[in-house]
Design brief:
The chain is of the alpha/beta class and 612 residues long. Helices cover 31% and strands 16% of the residues. The protein has 18 helices and 23 strands. This is S-adenosyl-L-homocysteine hydrolase NAD binding domain-containing protein. It comes from Oncorhynchus tshawytscha.
Length: 612
């Protein structure tokens, strides 16, 4: 039985018509009383005239083998049929429209005598005012919001796959701009100085979660322990780093800063720092050439020479050694916070080329246990969710390395229901992984079946092209280590592979057979490139860095030689104690008898320097 649609076209209604569907269990024919009979013809007033130029868009004719397509109306909310125009003389209804299933949903009319006639071909009308209103809609959307709402996809050659950012609409390189802050100072290079107000608000939010730095700023501001210090820094430029830089300035230091990662810079924060008078050279989405140019601009300034280095990854130290080795005659020390940078320092020391004392902040307890472990435990999930919207339950995940970063990643993924495998070269860390309930494997044993691969070793060539070729379709590949050397991304930039940009920091690398992997941040640090990290944890690291700078800068000559040192345990404990009030935590104090029994000072340090 067929449904029938009866159209009552009311003569006194000009711009609207109502269609009423009448469902009947059995209906052989329909009687329409008191309505004159008039069959529809191609000359009916329902058919627009051919001379209505600019108003009519021809609809392609549908054949019996083709399902007619319905074009959506331009103006939403308009209930009038598209074929009705003002001042149209309304015809009287004499037929019933029905859908013939044999014609793939085509429209037909049932006449009073029971015969079936094909409905006339109707043309769509787009009103001029509707088109104009549609064109008034905004066409430019910031890439950041676009990447979250609309998956922007395009296919690029392997040579240009890296050249994208998610910053503003202005694609002019900051190096080609002349920018000045409100005070007329132009000694900086950032994306857009107009974003300073937004950056200032982010810095103010970060200050609320960085109690130790704010306490240090308040306690030591009168003493100015860094008076005369000229600190050149190369770290991630985020709101948390801004709080550190402003704290160093409050303690008496002058600062010049560049970014240690081409994707982690928060442009609005860099703008706020530049507006505040800081010499900042960084923006999100730098090229490799931009990266080294920014470091050089940061270091090479006539009439200004640094006497302290704060580095994250060793690139700044490497650049000064390579380009300006004479600067080390006036540099008092280096503070390094990453595994990669510390490794470079130990190599220089072993070769006898380290000509100033260096402080290894990475291996301090506060950095290892809090920044590396607890920070990564939260930020790994955040980075993966923001970029891929992946569900972790039931996924097979390969974590390469079971150091503090690996431990944090594994704990988070296991808690979300993932099946986690671990690779490790150190028998002690390997045993820890086994005792924590993870299966220890070699990468080539499970590479074909895992859904996600995460590197966090600090090494190079952990995931090489051979493993990338063997991965399953849709496998997500990312890095939680500082450097981009762990995944062999360079081997993927070959003509036979296609790079497809999905959204900011997300690329599909497609093989000739159609297999694709999802590469995040081009193998660079995932959490700071694709998301954010907990501010409170960074407060611990930043306070440790500040104390290390104060220690090296004020140390009497001869205390530290040309070697790599660990932060004194007393300072580690002091950093931790500054954060305890946040939790309303109360330390138990040793009695004199207890302190004597343990052979400790009542005020610490409570652990030997070798404790980790």
């Amino acid at each position: 039985m067929n449904d029938h649609t009866v159209f009552f076209l009311l003569p006194d209604v000009v711009s609207a018509a109502m269609s009423v569907q009448v469902l009947a269990a059995k209906m052989a024919e329909v009687e329409l009383k008191d309505v004159p009979s008039k069959e529809l013809t191609p000359e009916s007033p329902l058919t627009p005239k051919a001379d209505d130029k600019g108003m009519v868009e021809n609809e392609p004719k549908a054949t019996s083998a083709t399902t007619p397509t319905m074009e959506p109306m331009v103006k939403t909310g308009d209930t009038s049929p598209g074929f009705l125009t003002p001042n149209t003389k309304m015809p009287q209804a004499s037929a019933m429209k029905r859908t013939d299933p044999q014609q793939n949903g085509g429209e037909a009319f049932v006449n009073r005598d029971g015969t079936v006639a094909e409905a006339p071909r109707l043309k769509k009308i787009q009103f001029a005012d509707q088109k104009q209103e549609f064109n008034k809609r905004p066409t430019k959307i910031g890439r950041r919001s676009l990447s979250r709402s609309i998956s922007q996809s395009s296919t690029d050659s392997y040579g240009s796959a890296a050249s994208y950012t998610d910053s503003s609409d202005d694609e002019t390189s900051p190096r080609d701009k002349q920018q000045k802050n409100s005070k007329g100072n132009g000694d900086f290079c950032i994306k857009n100085i107009k974003q300073a107000d937004f950056g200032r608000r982010e810095i103010e939010i970060a200050e609320q979660e960085m109690p130790a730095l704010m306490a240090l700023r308040k306690r030591a501001q009168g003493e100015k322990p860094l008076a005369g210090a000229k600190v050149v820094g190369c770290t991630h430029i985020t709101a948390q780093t801004a709080v550190l830089m402003e704290t160093l300035t409050a303690l008496g230091a002058q600062c010049r800063w560049a970014a240690c990662n081409i994707y982690s810079t928060q442009n609005e924060v860099a703008a706020a720092l530049a507006e505040g008078g800081f010499s900042v050279f960084a923006w999100k989405g730098e090229s490799e050439d931009d990266f080294w140019w920014c470091i050089d601009r940061c270091v090479n300034l006539e009439g200004w020479q640094p006497n302290m280095i704060l580095d994250d990854g060793g690139d700044l130290t490497h650049w000064i050694y390579k380009k300006y080795p004479n600067m080390f005659k006036k540099i008092k020390g280096i503070v390094e916070e990453s595994v990669t940078g510390v490794h470079r320092l130990y190599q220089l020391s072993k070769a006898g080329k380290l000509c100033v004392p260096a402080m290894n902040v990475n291996d301090s307890v506060t950095k290892q246990k809090f920044d590396n472990l607890y920070c990564c435990r939260e930020s790994i999930l955040d980075g993966l969710k923001r970029t891929t919207d992946v569900m972790f339950g039931g996924k097979q995940v390969m974590v390469c390395g079971y150091g503090e970063v690996g431990k944090g990643c594994c704990a988070a993924l296991k808690a979300m229901g993932s099946i986690v495998y671990v690779t490790e070269i150190d028998p002690i860390c390997a045993l820890q992984a086994c005792m924590d309930g993870f299966r220890l494997v070699k990468l080539n044993e499970v590479i074909r079946q895992v859904d996600i691969v995460i590197t966090c070793t600090g090494n190079k060539n952990v995931v090489v092209r051979e493993y990338l070729d063997r991965m399953k379709n849709g496998c997500i590949v990312c890095n939680m280590g500082h450097s981009n050397t762990e995944i062999d991304v360079a081997s993927l930039r070959t003509p036979e592979l296609t790079w497809e940009r999905v959204r900011s920091q997300v690329d599909h690398v497609i093989w000739p057979d159609g297999k694709r992997i999802v590469l995040l941040a081009e193998g660079r640090l995932l959490n700071l490139s694709c998301s954010t990290v907990p501010t409170f944890v960074l407060s611990i690291t930043a306070t440790t860095q500040a104390l290390a700078l104060i220690e090296l800068y004020n140390a009497p000559e001869g205390r530290y030689k040309q070697d790599v040192y660990l932060l004194p345990k007393k300072m580690d404990e002091y950093v931790a104690s500054l954060h305890l009030p946040t939790f309303d935590a109360h330390l138990t104090e040793l009695s004199d008898e207890q302190a004597k029994y343990l052979g400790l000072n009542k005020n610490g340090p409570f652990k030997p320097n070798y404790y980790r």
